[in-house]
Amino acid sequence: MTAKTPSKLKSKSAPQKAKTKAAKQARSSRSLEEVVGPEVYRTWVSMLRVLVPGGRTHRLAPLLAAMLQYACSVAEDKQDGDADEKSINQSLLDSTEASDPSEVKALLHDAVAQLFKDAGVEYGRVSARGQQYSIADDAYSEYVYWLAMPWE
Fold first, then answer.
1. Cys-Cys link to 142, which of 21, 65, 109, 119 (CB 3.0-4.6 A)?
2. What single-letter DSSP state applies at residue 5?
């Protein structure tokens, strides 16, 4: 029985790595960048990279909700009759009809997670008491109640 050299093993496993990487990219292909464009998206990524590590959730959640509101406004401007129902554009448009934060999460969370991933920061947090919470989940609430003015 002969042993294979490491270089031969690498060459055989390289195509598998390429396939795995392509599959991951296909799963996370929905990005808010498709809607708002690369310049705005890079700005958002830069903002999150700087603000999230030391930022307070009650201040970051409205910021993220504002980003989603802006993306929705752009999606409305780009609206066409032949939109793919699974596109981020269509999900943003559908999210305007949502009355519950969990509905918004179901529609947009993959794109929000991608935004945080691109910024290299986490949206999940743990309180001093060990409770887990999420900037993203709080932002979905802010997004749903964006126009609510309880004092009126």
1. 65
2. P
Structural domain count, the chain: 1
State the Cα torsion 80-84-86-88 to the nearest 10°. -40
11 lies in some domain:
no
Which long-range contacts link 74-79 to residues 24+ away (Cβ below 8 Å)? 74/35, 74/36, 75/35, 78/35
Per-residue pLDDT tens for 33-64? Answer: 999 999 999 999 999 999 999 999 999 999 99
Cβ-Cβ contacts under 8 Å for 117 (sequence gap 6 or more):
28
What's the rounded Cα separation, in Å, for the pair 102 and 109?
Answer: 10
- The answer to whether residue 72 sits within a structural domain is yes
Instruction: Name the amino acid, one letter, at 28.
Output: S
pLDDT digits (tens, 9 = 90+) for 1-31: 444 444 443 334 444 444 444 434 443 579 9
Q: Considering the entire predicted model, what is its pTM?
A: 0.78
Residue 80: CB atoms within 10 A of its CB come to 6
Residue 9 lies in a domain: no
